[in-house]
Amino acid sequence: MTSKDIAEKIVEAVKAAPEVAQQLIADPRAAVARVTGAAEGFDLTEVVQEALALAADLRLDLSCVDLGKLDLSQIDVAKLDLVRLASVASACNVDMTKLDMGAVTAKLLGGGLFRRK
Question: Are 29 and 75 in contact (CB under 8 A)?
Fold first, then answer.
């Protein structure tokens, strides 16, 4: 199953039950496994971004999604396209101000640029 196939199944599940979008944010791997049965063999960050892009294309109302609960431990932040995420958020009525940019930056910097050795 490709990332796009998984994303399409996720979006179908979100259309049927919008709370699935929050589950995808809070625990992406578990949400994908619950909806599709796929547990590995895919890029989770790519799946999340594909699913959100598809949701934006459909103009789904995801105002119930709290980006403050995004599980950054499961996402490869270096691959996360924040500009695209902001565009998706706008199209789907998601409040981007809840995204913890400090945590995103810290993860991008690998836990701290100024660590002492």
Answer: no
Q: Tell me if residue 109 falls in helix, strand or coil.
A: coil
Query: How many C-beta atoms surround the C-beta of residue 85 within 10 A?
Result: 21
Scan for tokens 């490869």, then name that residue.
76
Longest dimension (CA), the chain: 51
For residues 69 and 25, what is the distance between their CA atoms, to the nearest angstrom? 7
79 vs 66: CA distance, rounded Å: 20
So what's the pLDDT on residue 116? 46
Cβ distance 60 to 88 under 8 Å? no
Nearest 5°: phi and psi at 11? -65, -40
Q: What is the 3-state secondary structure (H, E, C) of 12-69?
A: HHHHHCCHHHHHHHHCHHHHHHHHHCCCCCCCHHHHHHHHHHHHHHCCCCCCCCCHHH
Task: Assign 114 a pLDDT band (cuts: 50, 70, 90).
Answer: very low
117 touches 82 (CB < 8 A):
no
Question: What is the mean pLDDT of the segment spanning 30-50?
Answer: 91
